[in-house]
């Protein structure tokens, strides 16, 4: 029979065991081995059955066992030690508290998904895992973040396969009361509520759950409450589900409701109010509008409120293609804002202008969330060096007149949270080498001194470690494969072959990720005969473990999975290649350590960063990847291989895939497998072991989320906090009025004459040119602008490359026509073809970049031709 109502019955712990509840409710257990070991010892069998989830474990342990533990002095001593360790972790000074200067009092970090642990399934892929790692690393560093997201009742879908290999989706219902969450409550004990106004006098209400991620509170808004009508209750049903209006409501609740949740949390707990708001991708972009509405209520007009909000906002873009950005019909957006809906005191047409694609090639009737995010943030970044470059080119239309390299979007390369992703066996080997405390610091903060000690680990120890991790993966794969085949309808008698799947002594390749077409799941199948030869080679075989989910609406991605599954079902190769359904954090934590090679073959440059290879590297896995994302930035032949790309404009997609697949097979046949199987005098693969050692020592410190968060603090959060403090109401009004005046007068800014002291078209390295420039400023003053000489090498079309800007200074008084003369030296510090030009930019002390307004004046062609622009 089916229950008509469901309750969550919490265990009553004996008084001596009460600290277990606190330990279970702080998600630090998900990356703290000592806490997990303690819970495992409560009941190893039930711990395994609970999937390593302390909340589920405590709900299943019999009262007799709890009574027994309450009288076990050894267990209580261990419990006290672990509880004391958590208290020290939560209250002691860490890296952030030891920094000098006025760092942000708090940072609010908004993301549509967070991958903290499999016990809190609120993630779909890399964006969520990155957000979870960001919070964990911030906690380890002591950075005062507040995470903000949504609580999805179905999380992301669970995946299984049909008998013929087609992806099937399942949406299990999550009960928040069974998750490691606490409701945010008012002082009188009533649940805190967040309310958004909807068209037609309707409301969207949400409660706020708090997940404690170490030192970081993560606020999750949940609309599935009785006060809402059916449609509103479903707003937080599924991650990335529903149609356009559904997604718009999710993003309004995340951004606008998220700011209100932060304000409520700070009011109720005394947490410092955020000085910086970090928008992790465009989904949360509406947070800027809510903060503007707050300032409008304090008396600022729209433009001044915009400047105040921009000063303290950081926007991170994660997509390298316009199609990956959420865009809404402008009429849909307009209907949800204004006098009869949300944010009634913000002019709807001004809101729309923030997101409209008002640049060449843009869609004038679409509201672009990333465009709004960039316009509402004074600081923006991509997530790898290459992605920063791609982002500057993709969004260059927002800064007309500037070369892509000057678009004010920087990059902070992603990192991964090592304590989450490093296998216990790898950690124990490191701790044995340098000590437990130093090993923890190496993983959370990272510096090369600690990682250099990898050089002292014996070859045999490294090789034994890698084999043991491979053996653990083999056992995990067999268990998961057996469960998958039973879901596909196979009987036990059909599955005896699974006991022979994979071999702990065979070179193991991993490939696991989401399955959009650009990641090319099936590139390895391009020449099936060559792949079979690799899998079945009598002396140097390989085995491949594949996992991944396609979006429920992506039939193309599902067909790719089916194609791979059907190949892996072939009795000739099924012991050497497997597809594991339901890829998630729990599987990933077993998969990364056990693979010798991590394969990544996206279409370059469509991988923004791609952090799965970083997780493999932290466990001694070597990367075999296209030079895209982070691998483009840090690849060295000492610790991996690069797959050549055929990305010329004239190469058709099929031919490109053929060329790149052939290059992949060549690398595997001629270099990768030979390096793995060739033995030196010691009987070990010396070259392979040295590549593992270099992966750990050279890549280890770079790929850490601790390094990433420290970069955010130094390069983005702290400057944003300083800008926020400087942008009080008077400063915001001043800057808004100045920008309006500059925009209105810019048509009168001209470069009228350029002359130089150069007597010929050649000059010697180290010599200096004297520049004299006459500019018209119209109604502007010299303090409103900066006149620059921009110089550097020139290409065949006389475009300046690796440009450097040199400010020129005004001399004398304005001429009769209001023109000014600027002068300055130009050093010739590079040999070869060299050129310069002159330009005028707006200048103000509160600007983060000279390109911020997208205004620039350059010489007209007749002035440029008379200026002697090129030195050859």
UniProtKB/TrEMBL annotation:
Gene3D superfamilies noted in UniProt: Glycogen Phosphorylase B (3.40.50.2000)
Keyword flag Electron transport: no
Stretches assigned to the DUF3417 domain: 13-120
Entry EC no(s): 2.4.1.1
Class in the EC hierarchy, top level: transferase
Job description of the protein: Phosphorylase is an important allosteric enzyme in carbohydrate metabolism. Enzymes from different sources differ in their regulatory mechanisms and in their natural substrates. However, all known phosphorylases share catalytic and structural properties.
Protein name: glycogen phosphorylase
